[in-house]
Amino acid sequence: MEKFTKLTGIAAPMPLVNIDTDMIIPKGFLKTIKRSGLGVNLFDEMRYDRQGNEIADFVLNKPQYREAEILVAGDNFGCGSSREHAPWALLDFGIRCVISTSFADIFYNNCFKNGILPVVLPREAVDHLMDDATKGANARLTVNLEDQVVTASDGTQFPFEVDAFKKHCLLNGLDDIGLTLEKVSAIDAFESANKTRFPWL
Question: What does CATH list as the number for 6-197?
Answer without folding.
Answer: 3.20.19.10
